[in-house]
Design brief:
Immunoglobulin-like; about 30% strand; about 450 residues; six-stranded mixed sheet; 5 helices; 4 domains
């Protein structure tokens, strides 16, 4: 009995050490399942495409919480390239922001590019597909330089650094710029193009009306109307207010409203109008192909022709079948009547005309109440100031607001982001492994010490 008592600490130490190593390795390999949780605060909002030229374009958005932002893009949906926020490109270090402004440069003219938005720990797409934007054709010499500039203040009259200023003229593509440390901003008006990108915009240098929208995220927004006569500089704009500086031209005081009141609908924050879904192809959106989910009762989502009926079947050790009618907006969803077993499952949707689509996915564990449809978020793109809901040759995203929180990997800078459709992976969590190893080691030495003492 004494010998047994002397050996217990050592045996226990070995067991905990072995368990710590095995558990740590497993947690590192499955870190995305056990530790990662999508944060709704990281979902991109107010997505806009601006500054389209023959070799560049800008993508901007806001988030409810400060997170790292970047763009994965390429000539194909495989998205070979990565570019970080405009400020991170200058500093070389990724920083978390509420307002994100990513500029893609040195591209080919008249070329379609695909991209996804990296926000926080996840890539966001256009309802299961990458967003698309086409660069402009090469034009001749631009008009003489004409720069619009000004200053943005917070409601407490301090400089509003890192907010976005959007500017449009009638029938032009939108332009944007980030404010600097002093709240100052500048936008070259002379490079603005027509809405079809085919030529530089023509305007009256004294009387053309410009509309300005300032996006400060949690700091608030502001709007202003100004003419080309008094845009150098534009009078100071304070977030939370709306201005009409045309009164200044007439010698009067500018009209100020306490809250932004967008004019002519150009500053609407509503999503782009989605085309009628009657021509929508049948598709299963969530879960993704070969996706690993952590709920045993997922909700299946998809899209298809409005008003049509589909037969949805899920094959597992038990087979579930149901008839689902597609909604007017082209979306459909189906919640399973009971929990699934762990392992691989296949979901199949069949349209009345015989069109069939299917997806395979794997249930790993029932440790979350989140339905599986949260695993493929899509950012909701909104029109930049002056952009018509009608798609133009330069901008072609038509998203659906289906984003939800999802298990997400941690994004890294442009030198470390891997090419994967599931998001930006992270190396894992070593803390559990280290803790178990330390605990096991301590117990081993404690057992050896006690064994040594008792021997004497």
């Amino acid at each position: 009995m004494n010998i047994l008592r002397q050996r217990i600490p050592t045996i226990l130490g070995f067991l905990i050490l072995i368990g710590g190593i095995a558990g740590g390795v497993y947690l590192v390999q499955k870190g995305g399942v056990w530790f990662l949780r999508a944060e709704p605060e990281a979902i991109p909002k107010q997505i806009r495409i601006t500054n389209i030229s023959e070799n560049s374009f800008t993508v901007s958005w806001t988030t409810d919480e400060a997170v790292i932002g970047f763009i994965k893009y390429g000539l194909t949906p495989s998205l070979e390239e990565t570019v970080t926020d405009e400020r991170d490109e200058l500093s070389g270090q990724p920083v978390s922001y509420l307002v994100h402004h990513v500029k893609v440069e040195d591209r080919k003219p008249e070329t379609k590019y695909y991209f996804k938005i990296g926000s926080g720990k996840r890539l966001f797409d256009n309802n299961g597909k990458p967003y698309e934007v086409t660069t402009a054709p090469v034009l001749g010499t631009p008009p003489p330089a004409d720069t619009v500039y000004g200053t943005i203040l917070k409601p407490d009259d301090s400089a509003a650094e890192g907010v976005i200023v959007y500017l449009t003229l009638a029938n032009s593509t939108p332009l944007s710029a980030l404010t600097k440390s002093g709240g100052n901003w500048a936008i070259p008006l002379s490079v603005a193009r027509t809405s079809d990108l085919s030529s530089y915009i023509t305007y009256d240098p004294q009387a053309s009306v410009e509309e300005i929208f300032v996006q400060g995220g949690s700091l608030g927004t502001a709007t202003a109307i100004v003419t080309t006569k008094n845009d150098s500089p534009v009078p100071t704009i304070t977030l939370g207010k709306s201005y009409d500086f045309r009164e200044t031209d007439a010698g009067g005081e500018p009209e100020v409203s306490p809250t932004p009141t967008p004019s002519a609908g150009k500053f609407s924050l509503q999503p782009l109008t989605t085309p009628p879904p009657v021509e929508e192809e049948l598709a299963i959106i969530n879960p993704e192909e070969n996706e690993e989910i952590t709920t045993q009762k997922p909700e299946i989502q998809g899209k298809g022709p409005s008003g049509k009926t589909i037969k949805v079947t899920l094959e597992s050790p038990a087979t579930f079948t149901s008839w689902v009618t597609i909604n007017e907006d082209g979306s459909w969803n189906w919640t399973l009547p009971s929990e699934l077993s762990l392992g691989e499952h296949t979901i199949t949707a069949i349209l009345e005309d015989g069109t069939t689509v299917s997806r395979r996915f794997t249930v790993l564990a029932a440790e979350s109440d989140f339905p599986s449809f949260t695993a493929t978020p899509s950012g909701t793109i909104t029109p930049s100031p002056g952009v018509s809901p009608t798609p133009s040759p330069g901008v072609s995203p038509t998203p659906s607001p289906t984003a939800s929180p999802t298990p997400t990997p941690t994004p890294v800078t442009r030198t470390g982001v891997l090419d994967t459709e599931e998001g930006v992976p992270e190396p894992g969590y070593l803390t559990p492994t280290v803790a178990f190893v330390i605990l096991g080691t301590v117990l081993i030495f404690t057992g050896l010490f006690l064994n040594f003492k008792l021997s004497f």
